Amino acid sequence: MLSLIALQVAAGAGLAKMAACIGVGIVTIGAAIGIGKIGAKAMEAIARQPEETKNIRTNMIVIAALIEGVALFAIIVCLLAIFIE
């Protein structure tokens, strides 16, 4: 990721493009951390209350899908900032 930023700066890319590259990385890392925490907490909840497995799993999938949607939207916005001037 840093090499991509360095190449763009060396090629005369603007500050907005460099910020968009950093934004893509931050969004991806943030979504991965968030979904990882959701999975970990769901497994803990299932271990404590096995009879609620179905409800916990359903809620976990819905929340993970919402996080993925927001992350995808943010990545698309960052990519538009890179490629559209």
How would you portray this structure in words?
The chain has a single domain (2-83), classed as F1F0 ATP synthase subunit C (F1FO ATP Synthase), CATH 1.20.20.10. The protein is 87% helix and 0% strand. The longest helix is centred in the middle third of the chain and has 34 residues, at 15-48. By secondary structure, the protein is mostly helical. It contains three helices and no strands.
Q: What form results from the Cα inertia axes?
A: elongated
State the helical fraction: over 70%
| Portion in strands | under 5%
CATH class: Mainly Alpha
Find the CATH topology: F1FO ATP Synthase
Mean pLDDT: 85
Count the E strands: 0
Give the termini separation.
Answer: 21 Å
- What name goes with the CATH superfamily? F1F0 ATP synthase subunit C
Biggest pleated-sheet summary: none
* DSSP helical segment count: 3
Structure classification: mainly alpha
Can you name the CATH architecture? Up-down Bundle
Keywords:
mainly alpha, F1FO ATP Synthase, 87% helix, elongated
Write the layout of secondary structure elements.
Blueprint: H1 2-10, H2 15-48, H3 53-83
Please provide a brief summary of the model.
The protein is mostly helical and 85 residues long. It has three helices and no strands.
